[in-house]
Amino acid sequence: MKGRWIAYSPDEMAWLEANRLMVISDYHRAFCETFGRGDVSLSNLHSLRKRKGWATGRTGHFVKGKAPHNKGKPCEPGKGGRHPNARRTQFKKGQTPHNTNYLGHERISTDGYIEISVDERNPHTGYERRYVLKHKWLWEQANGPVPEGHALKCLDSNPLNTDPSNWEPVPRGVLARLNGGRFRTTLAYDEASPELKPLVMASAKLKHAAQTARKGSPA
Fold first, then answer.
1. pTM for the complete prediction?
2. For the chain, where are the alpha helices, taking DSSP H only?
């Protein structure tokens, strides 16, 4: 019983130790029948073996390379995975999950950009579709790849407006001036009013070109 110390006689302890390798259910039944101990539960004997450190040789894990006892044996009809309740929720061959996102599905990224599922193999998972930035994908469909060293800048500061005409490729050096960072001494592009945005863009490009010229490298 829980909360009460259970005493065992020397003969009982000797028997328990000698038969410690038995399966716990057989161990408990045989002990109770041998000594007439109706006050000892299966969990009492299980705890006793643990306290005494009596190893049973069973870890509860499959030994590497050992096949499960039911390998190759089909589940009986009406049981386990073949139970009618289980079969109702099982996928059928060729079935697609109800929450599959099909070609053209869109979502919003954590950065606030629209991502779209396109017919391109995912290089990381090998899946037949992958998500890409919609504004970049549309721009490249219309204009070709974004020039090396450039990034697309949203002209109206609304990243959900993915029309290619709303995005312009600018050198990353210009992008840094538009976004702020150490160039926050000037008005950030996205904080400027619509009428001032062209001026902010032109100023950033001019400063970038001047700096590039001083370094003697192409813009």
1. 0.53
2. 10-18, 24-35, 42-52, 84-88, 134-143, 172-179, 197-215
